[in-house]
Design a protein that fits this description.
- The chain has a domain at 68-161.
- The chain is built from three helices and nine strands; from the N terminus they run ββββαβαββαββ.
- The protein has helices at 62-69, 82-104, 127-141; strands spanning 30-31, 38-40, 43-45, 57-58, 74-79, 110-115, 120-124, 144-149, 156-161.
- The strands form two sheets. It has a five-stranded mixed β-sheet with strand order 6-7-5-9-8, covered by helices on one side.
- Strand 6 and strand 7 (120-124) form a beta hairpin.
- It is elongated, with a radius of gyration of 17 Å.
- Bound molecules: zinc ion.
- Zinc ion is lined by residues 32, 34-35, 37, 60-61, 63-64.
Length: 168
């Protein structure tokens, strides 16, 4: 296994367009009926005190459409027997990181966490969230991490691996 890389500095620059972020704009304010985000000032945002009656229209936000279509843009693969030992702690950490990211970008979400026998797969609505989660796994638990970006489609694959015993 290669030594863990420190990841991509200065954030991730998208190299392909996100097909769910269309250039067309909605009337403002538009409400996502599924998650309650509001489209205002040309972007989707969480507005806690927003009165839904003020919405001029309803339209599902890009993140909800991705979740419904199961359109995955980032996948974190977790392997190695360390995970089983710290399962709950690691899953909590991932959910906490998601919650923090959502405050910056409400369209960055975990779609699914799928646990199979020897691999856990975390699917996200964005490349940057997958990269961030990989970075946090490496930062918190060591092991090794690798990032792969697809040229044909907008998809980031992050591989994090750790066995139980490791000198850090
Ligand atoms: Zn939504």
């Amino acid at each position: 296994m290669p030594k863990g890389r420190r990841g991509i500095r200065g954030g991730l620059r998208p190299h392909l367009d996100d097909p769910y972020l269309t250039r067309k704009s909605y009337k403002e304010p538009t409400l996502c009926p599924r998650c309650g985000l509001v489209y205002r000032r040309r972007r989707w945002q969480r507005i806690p005190d927003f009165d839904p009656k003020l919405a001029v229209g309803q339209h599902k936000c890009p993140a909800c459409r991705k979740e419904e279509d199961h359109y995955v843009m980032g996948i974190v693969y977790i392997t190695g027997n360390f995970f089983a030992q710290r399962r709950d702690q690691i899953l909590n950490m991932l959910r906490n990181e998601e919650a923090k990211e959502v405050t910056h970008n409400p369209l960055d979400r975990i779609i699914n966490i799928i646990e199979k026998d020897d691999e856990v797969r975390v699917e996200t609505t964005s490349e940057s969230l997958a990269v961030h989660l990989g970075r946090m796994l490496y930062h918190s638990y060591g092991g090794s991490v690798e990032y792969k970006f697809s040229d044909e489609q907008k998809l980031a694959r992050v591989y994090w691996y750790r066995e139980k015993k490791e000198e850090k």
